[in-house]
Design a protein that fits this description.
By secondary structure, the chain is mainly beta. It is 4% helix and 42% strand.
Length: 665
């Protein structure tokens, strides 16, 4: 009869007839006459459990007791093994050990000169005196090699990683256990993420984010290339948590409205929070959305409503945003964010909203950067109405947009970017607002289709101080272009534009160019650019905008004159506009005249062009486009704008000029 108990007790423990553990043996197990399990049967033990077997004959006489028995499939890593070798002195019987064991549990083995001294009949039988002492029944010979080994199971839970030691193989390393080692990284699979692209893993991922945040500083790992279906949005505290995506997909195809991942922060120290946000990056993830036609879907929302309102200094690196109505929405406190080598693209749906938005909110949009990023088939790319914005696009590519940027506030800088279009349904870049600036430097801008309806760039009349600036850029169009390069009447500056040979009309710049005279004559500083003589004065009698304009009161023998001289280079043209009125000009009262001349370094004219000669009244403010398109000849160092009334024989004609805009291109 074989009785089975829990190790070290008399508490019965169940054994099983099969490995499935679904049919229990009776306890005791009745053995056959040979002491075997009947019918060639097997005895299966519960994995991780420790047993004691008591064997008795049919008369209930004890044959043997075997304690601390585990099944052959039990996880052996939960054992601790120790050994100690001692050389005996002549007649030595007592050995005090540095290792420890538990007496009476069959956990100690003793070898003398390589022979296991097992049982009472052994040559050197011994007694397990206590947990550190062994006493032999007879003395050993001098020089006998005695090896003591112990094998002790740590606990009943044989799969507990906290009981498995880990000794790092490095000089100076500190031993720990497997549980602590594995906890150095947090995986979303630790919280039950399935990653089959079918099961909703959003709760498991959020649990991983929350657990990482609770540690104060940790990175969450995703399995390489795996697909995680997410039916609900997630929140990530980047002051505590970073993400290593390993190329995994977060699939939000069912999220037709709402936000996939909201970035926030919890650290109350603004200085350390910004530092932590820089460290806790989001890397190597695909954010897959429901389709670009879902305008209420948002991939990433950067917003923090804590005090102070800042979720600053984080970064997305090597990430892709696929098929979203809105890729990134910057709201309160989002500044100093960097998107590095990220892709924003559509393979499904036609968008009606922008990839990147900066609404007019508190502390939003300052010092954000997009580096080596790519937009493809995003009809609309950037929308900004935030005056705090100062965002740089460095080495980025934008392909296939209809209205790439719509800016009504802030400063946006494009540096070393490639921009390519196939659309003539809208202005590619639209700028409005007094201080709004869109600057391109060292960029390549190419159109694959004709531009006959909309200029590539548009500077609205309200863009007085910023507008559109193109410096050291190349512009090319493979078909015809019959519209100006920059439309509108707002500020625009073009410097060193390389124009590739193209269609029927070369790129031209609209009439409104670099503001001079401070946009008008409201400031007395206009005298730094203008030289007045013959009675020409700054006057408040008439004004197109504001209070002041230039006044030219003439009389017989008096020629009121205003001259403005500005730098120019050979090959440039002068473009611009001004507003004027001419009053009391009749008969012999003279001619209101405007002319532009190229000048050499001695102030001598190298050629000129009359822009206006008026001999009759113009009572309403009238815009005059200034076009001196004859290229400046060799030796040109400046151009001169001359405005006057000459040839007055009778009467008192007066002319007024305001809002002069002029530049050399």
């Amino acid at each position: 009869m074989l009785y089975t108990y829990a190790a070290g007790t008399t508490t019965p423990a169940t054994t099983y007839t099969t490995s499935q553990g679904n049919v229990a043996w009776t306890n005791p197990v009745e053995l056959d006459a040979a002491g075997r399990v009947p019918g060639s049967g097997e005895i299966w033990l519960t994995d991780g459990a420790i047993y004691k077997f008591v064997l008795k004959d049919s008369n209930d006489v004890l044959i043997a007791t075997y304690d601390n028995i585990t099944g052959i499939n039990s996880n052996a890593v939960a054992y601790t093994n120790q050994q100690e070798i001692v050389t005996a002195t002549a007649g030595q019987t007592v050995f005090n050990l540095s290792i420890s064991y538990q007496p009476g549990t069959n956990s100690l083995s003793v070898f003398v000169d390589g022979v296991n001294q097992y049982g009472s009949g052994a040559q050197y039988a011994y007694v397990e005196t206590d947990g550190n002492t062994v006493t032999f029944n007879s003395g050993l010979h001098v020089g006998a090699e005695v090896k003591f080994t112990t094998t002790q199971q740590q606990a009943a839970g044989a799969v507990d990683a906290s009981q498995v030691s880990y000794d790092p193989p490095f000089t100076g390393s500190v031993p720990t256990n497997v549980e602590a080692k594995l906890a150095q990284t947090i995986s979303v699979k630790d919280f039950g993420a399935v990653a089959d692209g079918i099961t909703d893993d959003s709760a498991a991922i959020q649990a991983a984010f929350d657990a990482a945040a609770a540690t104060g500083h940790a990175r969450v790992q995703f399995s390489p290339g795996a697909s995680y279906k997410c039916d609900s949005g997630l929140t990530l505290d980047t002051s505590c948590v970073g993400v290593e995506g390993n190329g995994a997909y977060l699939v939000f195809t069912s999220l037709t409205s709402g936000t996939a991942i909201t970035i926030t922060q919890s650290n109350g120290d603004a200085n350390i929070r910004t530092a932590l946000n820089h460290v806790n990056s989001i890397d190597h993830l695909f954010f897959s959305g429901p389709g670009g036609n879902y305008s209420a879907s948002v991939a990433v929302l950067l917003e923090d409503n804590a005090s102070p309102n800042t979720v600053a200094g984080g970064s997305f690196n090597h990430c892709a945003f696929l098929n979203w109505g809105n890729d990134v929405v910057n709201r309160s406190g989002s500044f100093c964010w960097t998107f590095n080598k990220c892709a924003f693209t559509l393979t499904s749906g036609t968008p009606t909203t922008y990839s990147i938005t900066f609404p007019q909110l508190t502390n939003n949009g300052e010092r954000n950067m997009f580096i080596d990023c790519f937009w493809f088939n995003r009809k609309y790319v950037v929308d900004c109405s935030n005056g705090n914005l100062s965002t740089m696009f460095i080495g980025c590519s934008i392909d296939g947009a209809a209205r790439a940027f719509t800016l009504s506030a802030g400063h946006t800088y494009m540096i070393g970017c490639h921009i390519e279009y196939v659309d003539d349904t809208d202005y590619w870049f639209h700028v409005s607002g007094e201080n709004t600036l869109l600057s391109f430097e060292n960029c390549e801008i190419i159109s694959q289709s004709a531009k006959t309806s909309f200029s590539p760039f548009y500077s609205d009349s309200t863009a007085e101080m910023g507008g559109v600036v193109l410096k050291n850029c190349a512009f090319g169009i493979v078909s015809s272009m019959t519209v100006p390069l920059i439309g509108g009447t707002g500020r625009a500056v073009v410097q060193n534009l390389i124009s590739q040979k193209s269609g029927t009309k070369p790129p031209a710049v609209a009439e409104s160019q670099n503001y001079l005279a401070y946009g008008g004559f409201e400031s007395a500083n206009y005298t730094g650019e203008w030289t007045l003589s013959g009675g020409a004065i700054r006057s408040s009698a008439q004004a197109k905008t504001g209070t002041y304009s230039l006044s030219f009161p003439a009389s017989s023998g008096v020629t009121p004159t205003a001259i403005m001289t500005m730098p120019a280079q050979p090959g440039q043209q002068v473009l611009g506009r001004l507003y004027y009125k001419a009053l009391n000009i009749t008969g012999t009262s003279g001619t209101f005249y405007i002319e532009i001349n190229w000048l050499d370094k001695g102030g001598n004219s190298l050629g000129g062009s009359a822009q206006l000669a008026v001999t009759s009244n113009v009572t309403d403010w009238t815009m005059l486009s200034l076009h001196f398109q004859t290229p400046a000849p060799k030796g040109t160092v400046s151009y001169k704008l001359t405005i006057n009334i000459f040839g007055t024989a009778s009467g008192t004609p007066t002319a007024y000029v305001d809002d002069v805009i002029l530049t050399a291109v």
